[in-house]
Amino acid sequence: MRADLRRRAEDGEFPEVFPGELELTAQYDVSRTTVREALRALRAEGVVTAERGRPSRVVTDRSLTQPVGALYSLFASVRAAGLSQRSIVRRLDRRADGVVAARLGLEESTPLVHLERLRLAGEEPLALDRVWLPAALAAPPLDVDFSHTSVYDELAARTGVRPIEGEERIRALMPGRVERAVLEVPPHAAVFAIDRLGRDGERRVEWRTTVVRGDRFVLRAGFSATGYHVTVGTS
Q1: At what angle do helices 21-28 and 32-44 cross, to 10 degrees?
Q2: What is the spatial distance between Cα 123 and Cα 115, in angstroms, rounded to a whole number?
Q3: In terms of CB atoms within 10 Å, which end of the chain has fewer, N or C?
Q4: Above 90 in pLDDT, residue 198?
């Protein structure tokens, strides 16, 4: 039933309103419990909306929009879009990395906490996220289950530190073999590669590299008569 509803939605069969529980119960001759389970799964996948008090609708644009110039949390953005958020933790350990330590303004041998996650939005791969934090600062979160929580939230709750500003470099590129396989990137689709240096005031507290599916990620910027500044450079 769920697969058939997904197919019908993708074929444009429900341009206005998605059928309700009673209508689907009659169409498929199944129990209301079965219908609710199918709808719950489709909402988690981001196929249909899940707004309280409003009829469900097919989601025609499943991309996640991010503002340019704002320090954002991918966890919070996915949740705000009405999609279920989950991460698959691929690595969480303590290590040394001279290049990253230098980016954080530390000695090359300084221990770092490294977290690598596959970020899912609506149970579909969205981003491959790699975070490095100074171990002296981030050692407490080493025992956290990061499958359903934000690095920023856990860092703030356990250490009182939260990045409040920083810089990002965003590039569009074709993914490598590993990224394409892990993110299930469609053939010939590009990705965004995002490098972020996060600071808590003057202190550098985070280095992050994120590879995001280009077909599911949109960058948004505003402008006014008083200014809109874009810096163009090379990688």
Answers
A1: 110
A2: 20
A3: C
A4: yes
